[in-house]
Amino acid sequence: MTRRTRARTSPREKTRPVARAPRAVERPSAPARVRSGKTTPLRSAAILTMVAGLIATVALPAYAAWQPEEEPQTLQQMSADDAQTLVVASDVSGMQLERSSYAATTAEEIEKKKAAEAAAERARARAAATPVTTLSSVDLSMTAPGSGEVRWPLSGYRLGRGLGDSGYHQGVDLLAGCGTPLFAAAGGVVRVSQESFGGYGVAVTIDHVINGQRVSTLYGHMTYGSRVVQSGQTVAPGQLIGVVGSTGSSTACHLHFEVHVNGSVVDPYGWLQVNAS
């Protein structure tokens, strides 16, 4: 009895579940995830670095072989005669604009400059063609006809332009052949005696005192080398001072004669008619 009892087990004992130790819940390893997350960006960065290095290796020699030529760039706007002129150099770095660094000229100023240059060129051509007078054929002791304090500067002439002609003429033109003797209109002191006296060309200016007034007379366009008086020299009425020419701003042989009384311009032909004898 005893053995059977021990051998048998009751049904309750058969169906009782065998107690087992609880299993640990398996979770993904955090460190493993971190490693897998960092591996991809690092690998990509490494690949990009290698590709960039290869590109630089190929591109740098090519860039070194090609260099653009540095050419000075200049902007020039050159005008015609009827416009303004502007010249600016753009290849000068850091250049400050000043009045002296540019030029602007109107059409009117261009025309005036051209006219002045043309007149000067004509004067040079006439001077080259006009023989220098040695006065060998002129009697230096001769004087102007008359006996008065005021004399006519020429013994024979044809009347040309008068005072105010063309709006600026300040004297009278007495037309006579080149080489015709010229005389002092009155006694006085020579103030100017020059071979080139502006537009007057070869000229003489004499200061006088006539009837208590300060008078000056001017003789222009004389022949080169014909002056027989010097600055500071005292001359008598009707004394020879040179010969007619066509120097300076002149187109024909003539005497340009001016008279200034107390510093003011007067009609020289009318003055001669009243005072000369």
UniProtKB/TrEMBL annotation:
Q: SUPFAM superfamilies under this entry?
A: Duplicated hybrid motif
What keywords would UniProt list here?
Membrane, Transmembrane, Transmembrane helix
Q: What is this protein called?
A: M23 family metallopeptidase
Disordered: annotated segments: 1-38
Biased-composition ranges, Low complexity, are: 18-34
Matching Gene3D superfamilies, A to Z? Glucose Permease (Domain IIA)
Is Glycoprotein one of the keywords? Answer: no
Which sequence ranges are marked TM in the entry? 45-66
